[in-house]
Design brief:
There is one protein chain. Helix 1 runs parallel beside helix 4. This protein has 5 helices and 6 strands, in the order αβαββαβαββα. It is 37% helix and 17% strand. It has one domain: Rossmann fold. It starts with a helix and ends with a helix. The relative contact order is 0.19. The protein is globular. It is an alpha/beta fold. The longest helix is centred in the first third of the chain and has 20 residues.
C-alpha cells in the first residue's frame, strides 16, 4: 500500500468513527423469523454475484421480508444490468474519496434501521467499509476478515469464500439463534 493510500485510509477511518459516534446504532440480534426489514450489501467483482444476490433477495421477499439491496460496481459508469432493477447499483463516482456516499439512495440505505444487514463481500473498498460500518442496522452479518469488528455475526468460511457459501452459512447460523 502506498504512503498516500495509507494516509487516505486512516483519514477515512477517522471520518467513519466520527459518523458512528454521532449517530450510534441500537444493537439487537435477529434471526430469520424476527427480521422483517433486511439490507444486503455486495460487490459485483465476480460476475455471478449479481444473479446470486438477486435470487437471495427474491427468496427473502417471498418469506415476507422487506429487502433493500445495494451493489458496488468497480467502475465509473454503470453497466447495463443496473437499469430497471430492484437493486441499487453505485459506482466510484457515486462516492467521495473517503467512501462516503453522495447519492441519496446510499444515504437512505445507511440510515435505514434494518433488522439484519448482510454484508456479502470480502472487499476492502472504502465504500463497502463506510456503508457497512456506518449503517444503523440492528444486526450485521458478514465474512470473517481483517477489520470486521463492526459485524455482529462473523462467518468463517475457511478457503471456500464464495458468495453462495457465505449466504448458506449465514442462514444456517441465523436459523440457530433463538429470539424471545
Amino acid at each position: 500500500m502506498s504512503f498516500f493510500q495509507n494516509i487516505k485510509n486512516q483519514l477515512a477511518g477517522l471520518k467513519i468513527r466520527s459518523k458512528q459516534n454521532k449517530n450510534p446504532r441500537k444493537k439487537e440480534f435477529h434471526n430469520l423469523e424476527s427480521a422483517k426489514n433486511i439490507g444486503i450489501l455486495f460487490d459485483t467483482l465476480q460476475e455471478k454475484n449479481h444473479s446470486v444476490v438477486k435470487k437471495f433477495a427474491e427468496n427473502l421477499q417471498q418469506k415476507g421480508c422487506k429487502v433493500q439491496t445495494v451493489g458496488w460496481v468497480n467502475a465509473t459508469e454503470l453497466p447495463n444490468f443496473g437499469v430497471a432493477q430492484k437493486i441499487v447499483f453505485y459506482t466510484n463516482k457515486d462516492i467521495k474519496w473517503s467512501g462516503e456516499p453522495i447519492i441519496p439512495e446510499l444515504v437512505e440505505f445507511i440510515n435505514q434501521k434494518f433488522d439484519l444487514l448482510f454484508v456479502l463481500t470480502d472487499s476492502d473498498h472504502l465504500s463497502i467499509k463506510y456503508l457497512s460500518k456506518v449503517s444503523l442496522a440492528s444486526c450485521k452479518v458478514g465474512l470473517l476478515v481483517d477489520n470486521c469488528e463492526h459485524l455482529d455475526l462473523m462467518i468463517d468460511l475457511g478457503k471456500n469464500k464464495s458468495i453462495e457459501n457465505l449466504i448458506s452459512e449465514s442462514l444456517k447460523y441465523l436459523s440457530q439463534i433463538k429470539k424471545e
